[in-house]
Write a structure and sequence with these properties.
By secondary structure, the chain is an alpha/beta fold. Among the domains are: about 100 residues, Alpha-helical ferredoxin (Fumarate Reductase Iron-sulfur Protein, Chain B, domain 2, Orthogonal Bundle), CATH 1.10.1060; about 120 residues, Rossmann fold (3-Layer(aba) Sandwich). The strands form 2 sheets. The protein has a 4-stranded parallel beta sheet. Helix 24 links the parallel strand 7 and strand 8. Helix 4 packs across helix 7 and helix 5 packs antiparallel against helix 7.
Length: about 425
């Protein structure tokens, strides 16, 4: 793709990055075949290729309108197009840059700004999110059925194993996960404890910054990233083996710290190291397969002997299969533990959660959720598993089946 970027962006770091991404696109259109919003709406401008043309026009100084913003807002940033693209176009990064530029040029109404700011503030701060969630859980029986389904039931976490091993790994607690499902990180800590690794958390670490970043508050998000780098760094200097992510959405964000802070001389080197140490739970337990295998073998034998094989439908979050390009590991681990994985048609498609997307684009999100539930339930599973807290909470609103994090199932299998 030939480009001629306008003066306002041409020589900026973002402009140079956008220019390189645009030039990689060959207009083939393969991306439209796997784009969830294009499939729903059938509009070229609601697919990756069309949005790329809109952003090219934007970066070249063309007229930008609320219509441009609408088509970019409708993008889930699921990055399925990146998995499909034969040219390696980094669409996710391009749309991040494009949205921020549109935000400055087009702006938003006072109501929209307030709503988006409120979402950012509440979701990214556990001290605000948890009390509001608890209030919703207390009043859940009194709420209309449709609203009540959106309030996750309260889960009681098991005891976190005390640090007792020489090997240590850090875990990101996350912003909403400890309130919605405190069982997840405890399950990861218990599994690692059984194979000789202590999982610890750094108390000063905050939200990973993904919610803030994808709401186009990039400067604020970068400050959050710097704060986390500072909080983790003493542990890195002490020799922790990895920074474990049990929410794939957080994982894809922290893995990009090095890139996003590359132009900050005070943080670039440390941020790069943080990103290198960051591993999804799948990567950690796959790498620890040796000590884990005897536990899985025992579980599989017990399961087969007692004829209580659990049928599991696994929803692979977009942030895992497209953002981090990790596929097949969860299914392999659960299968090794004696679970029976059911088939999930169109497994590459988004469930519609996508951070704040389910709140900001409820109609499109609802259609995607309905399609996803149909696919997940088609194999008659007993339980649905996933790898991201946003997907877990969103999918649970659409099904009577229990929706669990896959690490919780592995914890129970290896106990």
């Amino acid at each position: 793709m030939k480009t001629n970027l306008a003066d306002f962006i041409r020589d900026t770091p973002e402009g140079k990055e956008a220019n390189a991404i645009l030039r990689a696109c060959v207009h083939c259109g393969f991306c439209t075949a796997t784009c969830p919003t294009y499939q729903l709406l059938g509009d070229e401008l609601d697919g990756p290729r069309g949005r790329i043309y809109l952003m090219k026009e934007l970066f070249e100084g063309g007229k930008v309108s609320a219509k441009t913003q609408l088509h970019l807002d409708r993008c889930l940033t699921c990055r399925s197009c990146e998995t499909t693209c034969p040219s390696g176009v980094r669409y996710g990064r391009l749309v991040d840059i494009g949205r921020a530029v549109v935000e400055k040029q087009v702006g938003r109404s006072v109501t929209e700004k307030l709503w988006r700011s409120t979402l950012d503030t509440v979701i990214s701060k556990p001290t605000l999110f948890q009390p509001l969630l608890r209030l919703g859980q207390l009043t859940r029986p009194l709420l209309p059925k449709g609203l009540a389904r959106k309030v996750p039931p309260r889960r009681a976490a098991a005891q976190w194993p005390a640090p007792r091993h020489g090997r240590r790994m850090l875990v990101l607690q996350g912003c909403v996960q400890p309130s919605i499902a405190p069982t997840i990180n405890v399950a990861m800590a218990r599994v690692l404890d059984r194979i000789g690794v202590s999982l610890v958390s750094a108390p000063k670490v905050v939200c990973c910054g993904a919610v803030t970043f994808h709401l186009n508050a990039h400067d604020h998000a970068l400050d959050i990233m710097r704060r986390n780098v500072d909080a983790w760094w003493p542990y890195v200097e002490e020799g922790v083996e990895a920074i474990v992510m049990t929410a794939s959405g957080c994982g894809v964000m922290v893995k990009e710290y090095g890139e996003l802070l590359a132009h900050d001389p005070a943080y670039s080197a440390r941020a790069k190291k943080i990103s290198e140490l960051t591993k999804d739970a799948t990567e950690i337990l796959s790498a620890q397969r040796g000590p884990l295998q005897p536990l899985l073998d025992r579980s599989a034998r017990t399961t087969n002997r007692e004829s209580r094989t659990t049928r599991v439908a696994f929803h692979s979050p977009c942030t895992l299969q497209h953002g981090q390009q990790i596929r097949g590991i969860v299914e392999e681990l659960l299968g090794a533990a004696g679970c029976q994985l059911t088939a999930v048609p169109d497994a590459h498609l988004c469930c519609g959660s996508a951070g704040t997307y389910s709140i900001l684009q409820p109609k499109l999100s609802g259609k995607l959720l309905a399609n996803k539930i149909t696919a997940l339930e088609s194999g008659a599973p007993q339980v649905i598993a996933t790898a991201n807290i946003g997907c877990l909470a969103h999918i649970q609103t659409g099904t009577e089946l229990s929706v669990r994090h896959w690490v919780e199932l592995l914890d129970e299998a290896s106990a």
